[in-house]
TrEMBL record:
InterPro entries: APOBEC/CMP_deaminase_Zn-bd, CMP_dCMP_dom, Cytidine_deaminase-like, MafB19-deam, tRNA_aden_deaminase. The keyword Oxidoreductase does not apply. This is tRNA-specific adenosine deaminase. Its EC number is 3.5.4.33. Its cofactor is Zn(2+). SUPFAM superfamilies: Cytidine deaminase-like. HAMAP family: tRNA_aden_deaminase.
Length: 162
C-alpha cells in the first residue's frame, strides 16, 4: 500500500463515520510531513448546517493545529470531488495538492462541473490527482444511496399500509 492509499483509507474511515450517522459518506484528511493534522466527515444533517462538509471540518482542524490559515505544505485527501464551497476553501487555504477518490458529475468543482481548483484567474491553483481508491469510494456512495432508497421505499409502504 502506498502512502497516498494509506491516507485515502483514513479518509474512507472518516466517511464511514458519516454513514453511521445517516449522512452521505464523505470523508477527508489533511496531511503535513506524513502526519494527519486534520480530519473531517460530512455532518450536515446532524449539525443542521450547510457548512458541515468533510473538507471544511478538516481544514478548520488543520489550520488550528498549524496555527495558520495557510496550509501551503499540506495535502488533502477526500473521498468525493469537492463542491464549490469546499473547492473555494481549499484554494483559500493555499493547499497545493488534493487527492480525490471519486469524481462528482453533479456538483464537483475539480473538473466535473467546474474546475475551481485550477482556475488561472485565482491567485492559487491546486494540483489534483483523481481516482485514488476510486472504486472503493464510489461503491461506498452507491451502497449508501441504495440503502437510503430501500429505507424510503419501506417507510412509504408502511405508511400506505396504515
Amino acid at each position: 500500500m502506498t502512502q497516498e492509499e494509506k491516507y485515502m483509507k483514513a479518509a474512507i474511515r472518516e466517511a464511514k463515520k458519516a454513514w453511521a450517522l445517516g449522512e452521505v459518506p464523505i470523508g477527508c484528511v489533511i496531511v503535513y510531513e506524513d502526519k494527519i493534522i486534520g480530519r473531517g466527515y460530512n455532518r450536515r444533517m446532524v449539525d443542521h448546517s450547510a457548512l458541515a462538509h468533510a473538507e471544511i471540518a478538516a481544514i478548520k482542524k488543520a489550520c488550528k493545529r498549524m496555527g495558520d490559515w495557510r496550509l501551503e505544505e499540506c495535502e488533502l485527501y477526500v473521498t468525493l470531488e469537492p463542491c464549490p464551497m469546499c473547492a473555494g476553501a481549499i484554494v483559500q487555504a493555499r493547499i497545493p495538492k488534493v487527492y480525490i477518490g471519486s469524481m462528482n458529475p453533479k456538483a464537483g468543482c475539480a473538473g466535473s462541473v467546474l474546475n475551481l481548483l485550477d482556475e488561472k484567474r485565482f491567485n492559487h491553483q491546486v494540483e489534483t490527482e483523481e481516482g485514488l481508491l476510486g472504486e472503493e469510494c464510489s461503491m461506498m456512495l452507491k451502497e449508501f444511496f441504495k440503502e437510503l432508497r430501500e429505507k424510503r421505499k419501506k417507510k412509504k409502504e408502511e405508511k400506505a399500509g396504515e
